[in-house]
Each structure stands twice: as C-alpha cells, then as structure tokens.
Design a protein that fits this description.
It is built from 2 helices and 4 strands. The protein starts with 13 loop residues before the first helix and ends in a 5-residue tail after the last strand.
Length: about 100
C-alpha cells in the first residue's frame, strides 16, 4: 500500500523527522498529528490526535505529541501534517511512523 508520493523511500529516521518539524516551525505553519489503521491508509480521513497545535513554536512539543500518539496507537500509521494559515491549505503531510498491517 502506497502512502504518498515518496512512500517507496525507507522510513524516516528520528533526525529526519526532527528536520521536518523544524521546517514546519520555521515556516510558521500549524502542526497536527493524525493516525489511521494500516488497512485504511488510503482513506481520505485520518483520525486527528488532539487538536492542531496552533502557534506552536517548540519542535520538542510537536515531536513529543507525535511520540505520544505513536505509543498510544503502536499499530497505526502516524503522520505529521502542517497547515499554512496564509494560503489556507496544507503545507505538508508525511507519515512519520508506519504501522504494521494485520
């Protein structure tokens, strides 16, 4: 099952995930964490983990929420999404933890 344009690449390392979170903060985007069962990954709708982190400037807090979601749902895919207020669209979305299909 493909999870997006670059899903053929290996899973991102923690350092690469951190770089992406730093990019989100540097752009002033609002981060959010979403999760879904691997069997439903192609679905348009993923479940949001808490509310989006409006105005969050701490990379550590974003990564901590992503890790908390992953620990609460270890078998699910977890993705980092960032919303661009100026353009009123998603700035980016990437799977940062891949669950295992049953």
């Amino acid at each position: 099952m493909k999870l997006g344009t670059f899903s053929y690449l290996p899973e991102m390392t923690p350092q690469q995930v951190r770089k992406q979170a730093e990019y989100v903060v540097a752009r002033g985007w609002n981060a959010a964490i979403e999760h879904v069962e691997p069997e439903q990954a192609a679905s348009t709708y993923w479940t949001m983990w808490k509310l989006p982190m409006f105005g969050e400037k701490s990379v550590e807090r974003i990564l901590a929420e992503a890790e908390a979601c992953h620990k609460a749902h270890p078998g699910r895919h977890v993705r980092l999404v960032a919303y661009d207020n100026a353009r009123q669209t998603q700035g980016t979305a990437m799977v940062i933890h891949r669950g295992k299909a049953v």
